[in-house]
Design brief:
The protein is of the alpha+beta class. The chain folds into 2 domains: 240 residues, Distorted Sandwich (Beta-galactosidase, Chain A, domain 5), CATH 2.70.98; 367 residues, Glycosyltransferase (Alpha/alpha barrel). Helix content is 31%, strand content 24%. The strands form 9 sheets. An 8-stranded antiparallel sheet has the order 6-7-8-9-18-14-13-12. The chain has a 5-stranded antiparallel sheet with strand order 5-4-11-16-15, with no helix packed on it. Strands 20-24-23-22 form a 4-stranded mixed sheet. Helix 3 crosses helix 4 and helix 7 packs across helix 8. The C terminus is likely disordered.
């Protein structure tokens, strides 16, 4: 019979399996929450990735550890031993003491020669899984990971944004990277995979996270990694326990300005990056222990937009095609400048998310940025292309101009509807406004009231406002009433959100918050406000509190490199451009829910997304953050410039959208 033993700490408990490793963490305050992956709920999880298993790579070879070679149970925990390599012994000591559960991993060189550990990995399989929304909110956790050397931690936060949170804080040793395993077409987009943390991952990706060390052990010498686990009622309580060596009120600054930092007593800044545009590393030292994080210096937004607009005009239009297809926009391989053809891959099409390039041109034109004549020609051409090749008779929108049957994709409609209402604002053609209204009305006939389409509330408000100003109050009111009904429908649904292209994700919850905020602004209702307050918590839970420019407040996404990139690589994408949907939703909150902190977060999310653009106009659709994904080096930008321009476009549009929403309230139905 296999022995499992429970040890109580801090109001919860850890259940250790027969080999002495944690197989679950449980707390009576949230008994249904599954903090760790479980084979019963995830068949792709198994012993190779149980908590505390791992691997080592050396110049002489590699090894893994799983089953214990020796195990010593005690009243307050267990000590287990492994021999991952002939010259390397691993002792793991697990103890509970009051409020904390502590693990120490000690690797000792038992050989006669110096040992170099060039990769060292420990599995921490937090259950970051998207089941249906009801199940995700009741059972799953977001894993917020910060591997900043001595300043490292992991936070398993319930997707419901309710306590308790399970925190892991490094107290001895360092973590310099994390990687992801078990990401492929089998686990697909709904599973983040197995999380692996590294004192070093030099062997597989020496430059990841600003550089990976080599751990050198003389004969008889050891390296120890110790962390403590505890239960926390809030993020704030957890962060206070981390004993941070510094605080970064902001993680970005304009070129020529310093990123503000507040050093803790005894901390000194060893190095800080230069002041060219992009991500820079900050090195810290306290009590002989090194830490590192990343900040960014940013070129002016106008410079980035105008450079990107020029690149879109010069490279992303398929001028080799006949009209009107030549007015579309395509992805580009930035390594060569070659436009990427669709190749039977929907996310490389000339429609759908590529509409973001046209929207960026529009927003630049509305700001009087860039070459007005060239932008006008491109926008008028794209409008013709969209009318003739993307919009169907029933008002649905195709993903591609290529002929063939396509399933209905409601996401596509508000993007083009808002494009056409902005065309009306630019050029005054009433046919564009009529088309925008027709597309939105058709979307309700096609079922959008049960969908959380990105940008839908904003498109409805913009179109209704324009109709109102044209004197068509009845049609404007009809659109607003449809949106109010849409809002109430989702209030009634509660946690039972419909699955979209991913079963549960940030780009469902951000549109939900936008929908509820807009509906509440149109017609205040306490039920809507209560639902908005709850869903705001769900949304904020997607973005962690890591002091890293690519991570803080940025919603977790981990599939876009595969679907939209050219390297077809799964894994965490930070920041992904749809993270700005969170920023937009935060800016749309009613005054009752706005705070200085959530408005700061909105600004920070927009700023973080600027790191994926260069002053030369280059861009990437996905920066893969882990050091490796399934053994393939990551921590790099995918070479394809594809759909990322939504980040810039929505940054420019967001202020105007909020203004339109306020005007809609002033003129809308009561």
């Amino acid at each position: 019979m296999q022995v499992r033993r429970a040890f109580e700490f801090g109001g919860g408990r850890v259940l250790l399996g027969p080999d002495g490793g944690p197989i679950s963490f449980e707390h009576a305050a949230d008994p249904g929450r599954i903090y760790l992956l479980d084979e019963a709920a995830a068949a792709w999880h198994g012993p190779d990735h149980y908590w505390g298993t791992g691997f080592v790579i050396t110049p002489e070879g590699a090894g893994r550890w799983q089953a214990a070679s020796d195990i010593d149970w005690r009243d307050d925990g267990v000590t287990v031993r492994h021999r991952p390599r002939p010259e390397l012994d691993l002792t793991v000591v697990r103890r509970v003491a009051g409020e904390r559960f502590t693990e120490s991993y000690t690797w000792t060189n038992v050989g006669e020669a110096e040992a170099q550990l060039t990769s060292l990995a420990v599995n921490v399989p937090i259950r970051d899984v998207y089941d249906a929304a009801v199940s995700s909110l009741a059972r799953s956790c977001h894993a917020h990971i910060f591997t900043g050397g001595a300043w490292s931690w992991i936070l398993a936060e319930p997707m419901s944004a309710t306590p308790p949170l399970l925190g892991v804080i490094v107290r001895e040793g360092d973590l310099w990277a994390y990687s992801i395993e078990s990401r492929n077409t089998h686990t697909s987009s709904d599973n983040r995979g197995h999380i692996v943390v590294h004192p070093t991952d030099h062997a597989r990706n020496p430059e990841a996270f600003g550089g990976q060390p080599i751990l050198t052990l003389a004969p008889g010498a050891s390296y120890t990694l110790t962390w403590e686990l505890g239960w926390y009622d809030s993020r704030e309580a957890f962060l206070a326990a981390t004993d941070a060596p510094a605080e970064f009120p902001d993680l970005t600054a304009p070129l020529g300005s310093a990123v503000p930092v507040e050093l803790a007593e005894g901390t000194r800044m060893v190095a800080a990056g230069g002041e060219t545009h992009g991500v820079k590393y900050v090195e810290l030292e306290r009590d002989g222990r090194r830490s590192r994080t990343a900040v960014a210096h940013l070129a002016p937004t106008r410079d980035l937009v105008e450079a990107r607009v020029e690149r879109i005009l010069n490279e992303h239009r398929p001028v080799e095609r006949p009209e009107p297809e030549r007015f579309a926009f395509l992805p580009v391989d930035t390594r060569t400048g070659l436009r990427q053809t669709e190749n039977a891959w929907a996310d490389w099409s000339d429609g759908a998310e590529r509409v973001g390039m046209a929207v960026l041109l529009q927003q630049a034109r509305l700001q009087n940025w860039g070459d007005a004549a060239a932008i006008d020609d491109a926008l008028l051409g794209f409008a013709r292309f969209a009318r003739e090749r993307l919009i169907q008779a029933d008002g649905s929108i195709r993903r591609s101009s290529r002929p063939g049957n396509e399933p209905l994709r409601l996401y596509n409609t508000p993007w083009l509807a808002h494009f056409f209402v902005d065309q009306f604002e630019l050029y005054g053609d009433v046919a564009d406004l009529e088309l925008a209204a027709t597309l939105l009305e058709s979307s309700y006939a096609l079922g959008v009231a049960d969908h959380l389409s990105i940008g839908h509330p904003e498109a409805v408000v913009a179109t209704a406002t324009a109709l109102q100003h044209r004197g068509d109050a009845a049609r404007a009111d009809s659109l607003r009433e449809a949106l109010i009904g849409h809002t109430r429908r989702f209030v009634d649904r509660g946690t039972d959100l419909p699955a979209h292209e991913v079963k549960y994700e940030q780009s469902m919850v951000a549109p939900l918050v936008s929908l509820l905020a807009t509906g509440y602004e149109l017609r205040p209702d306490e039920r809507v406000l209560a639902a908005l307050r709850t869903s705001l918590g769900w949304l904020r839970a997607f973005g962690g509190p890591q002091p890293h420019v690519r991570l803080r407040d940025v919603g977790i996404r981990h599939w876009d490199g595969y679907w939209f990139g050219i390297d077809r690589q799964w894994g965490d994408t930070f920041p992904h451009y749809w993270s700005v949907l969170t920023a937009i939703a935060l800016r749309q909150l009613p005054e009752e829910l706005k705070t200085e902190e959530n408005q700061r977060a909105a600004d920070a999310i927009f700023a973080a997304n600027l790191v994926d653009f260069s002053p030369a106009g280059d861009a990437t659709c996905a920066f893969l953050l882990p050091s490796c994904v399934d053994g393939r080096p990551a921590y790099r930008a995918d070479p394809l410039a594809n759909d990322q321009d939504w980040a810039l476009a929505l940054l420019l549009r967001s202020t105007a959208a909020c203004s339109l929403s306020r005007r809609a309230v002033a003129t809308g139905p009561t």
